[in-house]
Design brief:
It is a single chain. By secondary structure, the chain is of the alpha/beta class. It has 13 helices and twelve strands. The radius of gyration is 21 Å and the shape is globular. The two termini are 23 Å apart. About 1% of the residues have low confidence.
């Protein structure tokens, strides 16, 4: 069996040493296991640690939110459900005319799948189509905004293509029309410098940056009329009741601080490797195509390389590469097992036949060029083999 190289960081990144050390420090502390809502000394210590994690996460988000506006959650799916349902209901509660919800057509499944529930609750949900390059253009949003729109949701960076959305402009347009604006920042948080100044809420996820699975936070403005979707206690400003996971919050904060501290350096390294990988696998003779412009700049996440291989299906590619020791994803890992093409790629106008051969390679600064180069050669070996079989 060859050495195994994991290249599916956009699905879930390996745990960082700093996050594990934060967990171990918690376990060795005098407040390990204490409820941070208790009045005794251990409870107060746990509460102080939790508040420290809020401060760290708020700072890593660019200082655009107060620490008290950081609400701890279990991750991206909960963030999207809570934000979309809660903010839509809050906007309508403030103004009964606000029954329209605008979602980008390239949101993560955990966001798009909320559309049905919103419709059940009486909302009109409309999708914003991206350009061929994967952007939601501000002018496309401007055309459909009116006084009936209560909420606009556009992710910070797409989990399949790595395209970074112009959320500052989009949020300004939404707020100018009196609507709330939410961005799912699961992929972009602590990987790019984003301006969240105009966002009413931002979702961040731990396991995309090397914190444990099951950690996350929803940053919610104090003025945002978000309606809670679960009930039973007053924790997290009543927005997300339930005893908090202090250990997970500390590990999330530790991973975020680590990534934020070296963000610019790491982005340069990872962007360079992504560009070299595109150049190697998308050379004219390979028949492998990028899904978007391959210039990895300010409008692209540094560590996502998005490809299509015409004439070959994604499942065969992933399995053959896995046999050779390289673990990658067919577009979004959350859609694995589906025979349907990526909703993101088809929304961008990529043909079904091409989209069925999609491949996502994702990594951070912990992956060496040597491993990426090895993957490239494995891919270039596998593609002709599968094409000859008609796979």
């Amino acid at each position: 069996m060859p050495n195994r190289v994991y290249l599916d960081y956009a699905a879930s990144a390996p745990l960082r040493r700093e996050a594990r050390e934060a967990e171990l420090a918690y376990e060795a502390s005098g407040y390990a296991g204490a409820n941070p809502n208790s009045l005794h000394s251990a409870g107060r210590e746990a509460a102080r640690a939790l508040d420290g994690a809020r401060r760290d996460i708020a700072q890593c988000a660019g200082g655009r939110f107060r620490p008290t506006e950081v609400v701890f959650t279990s991750g991206g799916t909960e963030n999207n459900n809570l934000a979309l349902l809660g903010m839509a209901e809050g906007a309508r509660g403030r103004d009964r005319r606000r029954v329209r919800v605008l979602l980008s057509a390239i949101e993560h499944d955990s966001g798009l799948d909320v559309a049905g529930r919103l419709r059940e609750r009486g909302f009109e949900v409309e999708l914003l189509r991206p350009t061929r390059e994967g952007f939601v253009a501000p002018e496309a949003l401007e055309r459909v905004l009116d006084e009936r729109v209560g909420l606009v949701s556009v992710m910070l960076a797409n989990n399949e293509t790595g395209v970074v959305q112009p959320i500052d402009e989009l949020a300004a347009l939404a707020q100018g029309a009196g609507a709330l604006f939410y961005t799912d920042a699961a992929q972009g948080f602590c990987k790019i410098r984003a301006n969240f100044a105009r966002c009413d809420a931002v979702g961040v996820v731990g396991h995309k940056i090397g914190a444990p699975v099951g950690t996350g936070a929803l940053l919610v403005r104090g003025r945002c009329p978000l309606r809670p979707q679960t009930f039973g206690g007053g924790q997290e400003r009543g927005i997300r009741p339930g005893t908090q996971d202090v250990r997970g919050a500390l590990a999330l904060a530790a991973a975020a601080k680590t990534c934020h501290r070296t963000l610019d350096r790491d982005r340069e390294i990872v962007s360079k490797n992504a560009m070299r990988l595109y150049e190697l696998v998308c050379a004219d003779h390979t028949g492998i195509l990028p899904t978007t412009n391959t210039t990895v700049g300010e409008d692209r996440l540094p560590g996502i390389v998005s490809l299509v291989v015409p004439g070959v299906d994604s499942e065969s590619l992933v399995l053959q590469l896995d046999e050779r020791g390289y673990m990658v994803s067919a577009s979004s890992a959350c859609a694995s097992g589906s025979l349907d093409p990526s909703h993101v790629l088809t929304a961008m106008g990529i043909s079904r036949s091409h989209a069925l051969g999609s491949l996502r390679v994702s990594f951070d600064e912990r992956v060496s060029w040597r491993d990426l180069e090895g993957f490239a050669h494995a891919l270039l070996d596998v593609v002709p083999l599968l094409r000859s079989r008609g796979a």
